[in-house]
Design a protein that fits this description.
One of its GO terms (cellular component) is plasma membrane. The chain crosses the membrane at residues 89-122, 249-269, 281-301. Keywords: Cell membrane, Coiled coil, Membrane, Signal, Transmembrane, Transmembrane helix. This protein is mainly α. The chain has a domain at 130-235: Type II secretion system (T2SS), domain F (Receptor-associated Protein, Up-down Bundle). It is 86% helix and 0% strand. The protein is built from 13 helices and no strands. It has helices spanning 2-42, 52-63, 67-75, 82-102, 104-149, 154-161, 169-181, 186-197, 200-215, 219-243, 245-268, 270-278, 280-306. Helix 1 (2-42) packs antiparallel against helix 2 and helix 11 runs antiparallel to helix 13. The two termini are 44 Å apart.
Length: 307
């Protein structure tokens, strides 16, 4: 039981550390918002040009986002979101209730399930947000090409179109436009935004913008061809998703079903697992089963991602 108590205590410490990280992220987001408001105020009509230092500090703050902050950013969730705070509180309450009612082993299982479920939830939101963003890119590129065709320069066309683009792509373009107005090169701002949000086609567009700004050339034709390529890739992706839907669904079921059954047995037949954990052979069997389950989940995840 000492090992179980230590595991439960470790899970509680992890959840507490997560809450502290979220609180720190909220404070960092507030400081970044204040800096951004200062930059926008300096860029208001009639105000003197903004110095480069605030923009550099803002970019450095973005680069220093920790791993959890990166997950939240890609999922489109603010660090000070009430929904996120309530989710953490509900997970901590579930662990405490499981410990009081069902014991230390059940509390540890609930903590693991909450962590896995939270990570899966963030991944699902990030995947949906990425898919919506990629679907918006061809329309944005078409509008950019039209502006360049009538004689508008590439940076000016980008600044005009970015505020009129729908979310979630509009939020990314607006951030890149603000960084560009603050003194950072447009291609660097776009590539930095694409890297933090995990949008690879947007990074390619940033590279094209950099070449167009530095060396010139018919960048409108290149952007038009990228838009066509993105449309063809989206059509092929939809066809592949329709053909492989059964395989991906089977992979998810095979990966999540053992976890669900194991969690159900721990919650409703806790004595069985406690007796197995107390026995050396049973403890080795449980550790081996957990290791095999982890390996199987990783392989099935790679299979689902490759389709």
């Amino acid at each position: 039981m000492n090992a179980l108590s230590l595991a439960c205590a470790a899970a509680a410490v992890i959840l507490l550390a997560s809450a502290l990280v979220l609180l720190a992220q909220r404070n960092a987001a507030a400081r970044a918002a204040a800096r951004l408001a200062f930059v926008e105020q300096r860029l208001a009509p009639g105000a003197p040009p903004a110095r480069r230092a605030p923009a550099q500090r803002l970019a450095e703050d973005i680069d220093r986002l920790p791993m959890v902050g990166g997950w939240l950013l890609r999922a489109g969730i603010a660090a000070d979101s009430r929904r996120l705070l309530w989710s953490v509180l509900v997970a901590m309450a579930a662990v405490v209730l499981a410990m009081l009612w069902l014991g230390s082993l059940a509390a540890a299982v609930v903590a693991v399930l909450c962590a896995v479920g939270g990570r899966f939830w963030l991944w699902l939101l990030a995947a949906r947000r990425e898919a919506r963003t990629i679907r918006q890119l061809p329309t944005f590129l078409d509008a950019l090409v039209r502006q360049m065709t009538i004689g508008t320069s590439l940076p000016s066309a980008f600044q005009q179109i970015a505020p009129n683009t729908d979310a979630p792509l509009g939020e990314m373009l607006a951030r890149a436009a603000r960084l560009s107005q603050a003194g950072i090169d447009l291609d660097v701002a776009v590539k930095q935004t694409a890297r933090h949000h995990g949008i690879e086609p947007l990074y390619v567009i940033g590279a094209v913008l950099g070449i167009a700004v530095r060396f010139g050339g018919r960048s409108d034709q290149v952007l038009d061809r990228i838009a066509g390529l993105l449309r063809d890739a989206e059509q092929a992706r939809d066809e592949l998703a329709a053909l492989s839907a059964e395989t991906r669904l089977s992979a998810w079921i095979l990966g999540l079903l053992p976890l669900g059954i194991g969690g159900f047995l721990v919650l409703y037949n806790n004595s069985l697992f406690v007796s197995m954990w107390a026995d050396p052979t049973g403890a080795r069997m449980l550790v081996g089963a957990a290791a095999l389950q982890a390996v199987g989940c990783i392989l099935l995840y790679r299979l689902a991602r490759s389709l």
